[in-house]
Amino acid sequence: MFFFRKLNRTRIWQFWGGLDALYLLWYVSSSTRLGKVPFWDDLAVATEVLKEHGTAALVMVMINWGLQLSIVVSAFLFLFQRKEAKWLGLAQIPLRLVFVVPSFSVLLIGAYFFPGYNPLMMLGVIVLSEIIKGWSLCAIRNDPR
């Protein structure tokens, strides 16, 4: 029980907000390192893909862009302790699984530095991280603020 008393909403939300911010920092730095303009060059590539693959690709790209935008918003909501963070964080879970964007963003960084990882194991760890996030957002007691 001691473990659960130490985990309160403030700490959990700072943790998930920090990981969202880390994901965004990693994304921007990776794009910049490759000589790309973050988000803008990805939009240009997506436009080319859409020309070749049509409506289904358009839907997937729009959903993915929605997820990326929601990660920016959730980082701020979690870090500023807004109650909407819980619902946005929970709503992101299925999309994060579909697009393989783990909430525990350190997994992406690890995959970069250890390219020989087992993809099935990585997928399992991503699923586990989303389960932990969902549990932590629903089960941890709220601060009386």
Report on the structure:
The protein is 79% helix and 0% strand. It has 6 helices and no strands. It is globular. The chain starts with a helix and ends in a 6-residue tail after the last helix. Keywords: Membrane, Transmembrane, Transmembrane helix. This is Arginine/ornithine antiporter ArcD. It comes from Pseudomonas chlororaphis.
In short:
With 145 residues, the chain is mainly alpha-helical.
The main β sheet shows up as: none
Calculate the terminal CA-CA distance, rounded to whole Å.
Answer: 22 Å
Shape: globular
By DSSP (H or I, 4+ residues per run), the number of helices equals 6
Any idea how many domains?
Answer: 1
Give the beta-strand count: 0
> How large is the radius of gyration?
17 Å
From the helix content, strand content and strand pairing, which structural class follows? mainly alpha
Taking pLDDT < 50 over at least 5 consecutive residues as the criterion, the unreliable ranges are: none
What average pLDDT do the residues reach? 85
Beta content comes to under 5%
Report the helical percentage: over 70%
